Amino acid sequence: MQVNRICITLYMGLACATLIAGMLISPALAEDNTSADIVWRGCGITQKAFMIEAAAAYEKITGKRISISGGGATLGIQTAASGQADIGGSCRPAKPDISELEKGVRMTHVGWDALVVMTHPDNPVNNITTEQLHKIMTGKIRNWSEIGGNNEQILVVVRIGKMSGVGYMGRKMLFQDPRENYYRRAINLKSSGPVEKKIESRKNAIGISGVSSAKRRKVKILFLDGTAPTKENVANASYPFFRPLFLMTKGEPVGEIKIFIQWLLSAEGQKVVSDQGTVNLTEGARLTKEYKFWENTQYVLNFTTEKEGLAQR
């Protein structure tokens, strides 16, 4: 497809996002939103981390219906910014500094996810180091035998685009540079779901996704630098690749949108987040200070100061 070829080559994938934005945020939504009190769109990882259960709990308490449809972090940010969605879900920060389509967005931090390394369940490898992962994702290590596995070529599977939630944050964490390219012979797929499915079916495959989504698949999630991405290890920062999850709104939330977000930040709402196996804000209180990749925190409505035990940036 011509659009995909353009997307791969343009700087950071951002021009691609601008090019096809009209197609991404067209009025033809994934479901009928006419009876919804709140329209939510965004990344599947945030959706699976807490949003489906949070919407159900909120409707049970208030009678207010929240419609949910996926499409990715960039879609969530841009539809919130344009007003086509009341709330966007994202596992990366908004980037109004480089994208006109993300200007005017405000972020609310609601929990913590982790990026994990996946392979097929039959792969004998159980642990990978950050250095090994770096070399695999750039094509410097190409055979599983080089890291203690079978004598098989490594099939690198990635989510296309550098501005997706996994694409952007994966590069930030692994390379400290969101512009870095993955191995030129990697298989590029349209979203994290197909990446996970490919790894379920290919014994020699490897890829990166969010733990909230990957743990629902029939994949092996590898230890990273000897540490498993358990909820406890994410919460205490011993697992290195943790990242914030956000809700996006056009400006500061008002009305029913504000009421829902306030509920989600309450003890009751945060319990729903935690009950899904996701680290909530209280459980991950130390992570705000430990996290090295904060950006545009002036747009995060509940970003607090070092005086309260959190980092100010």
Quick summary:
With 313 residues, the protein is an alpha/beta fold. It contains 13 helices and eleven strands. The longest helix has 19 residues, at 44-62.
Number of helices: 13
Most strands sheet: 9 strands, mixed
Please report the first level of CATH classification, the CATH class of the largest domain: Alpha Beta
Strands, count: 11
What proportion strand?
15-25%
Rounded mean pLDDT score: 89
User: Helical percent range?
Assistant: 25-40%
Order of helices and strands: HHHEHEHEEEHEHEHEHEEHEHHH
Q: What is the number of domains?
A: 2
The span between the termini is: 41 Å
State the fourth-level CATH superfamily of the largest domain. Answer: Periplasmic binding protein-like II
CATH architecture of the largest domain: 3-Layer(aba) Sandwich
Characteristics of this structure?
single chain; 313 residues; alpha/beta; D-Maltodextrin-Binding Protein, domain 2; 2 domains; nine-stranded mixed sheet; two-stranded parallel sheet; 13 helices; 11 strands; disordered N terminus; disordered C terminus
